[in-house]
Amino acid sequence: VGVRAIIDRNSRLFDLGLNLDMQYIDYLRNNFTSELAGNSELHARFAVVPEVLSLVVEDTFGQTQANAFAPSTPGTRQNTNLLAVGPDLRLNLGEYLMFLGSGRYALEDFQRTNADNERFQGTTGIYHEFSGRSSLGVLVQAQDVNFESAQFSDFIRREALMRYRLNASRTTIQLDAGRTEFRGRGVTPVRYNQWSFRFEASRNLT
User: 28 by DSSP, 3-state: which?
Assistant: First the structure.
C-alpha cells in the first residue's frame, strides 16, 4: 500500500514544495521484515523580510545501501533522512552587484549505519550579474561535520571559490575554481590544501 503526492504552493511570503512517493511493503512467508520504502523531498521557504531574508526548511528521506557491495534486499537497505534548517540572505548592492549568504544546521540519520551526524555549513558571496542569465561571483564556503560515533572522524572543510553561472532557456552551466582546505579531527589529524575545479552542466531535452 502506498501514497503519491506532489504539492507546490508559491506566494509572496511562503513557498512549499513536496514530492512524496512512499509505500509500506509486507513480504509473504516472512522472508523479510516489513518496511517503509520510497522517498520524499520537502522544501519550504518563509519570507521573514520579503526578497531579503528567508527561513528555509529542507528534508530528504529515502533508502541507501548499508553495504555497497551486497545485493539490494530489504536486509541491506536502510532508511536515511537529512533535515536542514537555516536562513538565506540577499542584498542588492547596486544595479548589477549583490550579496548572497546562507547558513544551515543539518541532521543526518541512518537506520543501521553508525554514521549519524550533525553539520554546520554556510556560504557567503558577492556576485556581479552581467544579464538576467549570467553572473560571476567570489564566494566562501565552510562546513563542520560532527559524527555521533567514534567510528568516523569529524572534519572541517573551507573553500574560497570564483564561480561563473549561465542560465539559458534550456541549458545551465556552472564553473567553480579555487582553493579547498580540509582538516580531519580523528585519532591521526589530517590537513591538506588543494586547488579545486568543478564543472556542472544540464540541458532540458524537451
Answer: helix
| Strands 35-49 vs 53-65: parallel, antiparallel or unpaired | antiparallel
Q: Rounded to whole angstroms, how far apart are CA atoms 111 and 74?
A: 12
| Alpha-carbon 186 to chain mean position | 24
124 within 8 A of 103, measured Cβ to Cβ: no
Model-level pTM greater than 0.85? no
Q: Which residues pair with 124 in a beta bridge?
A: 101, 140
Position of cell 563542520?
A: 144
pLDDT digits over 68-125, tens only? 788 877 878 899 999 999 999 999 998 889 999 999 999 999 988 889 999 999 999 9
Alpha-carbon distances of 164 from 3, 101, 158, 161, 172, rounded to whole Å: 40, 17, 19, 10, 11
pLDDT at 20 over 90: yes
3-class state of residue 66 by DSSP: coil
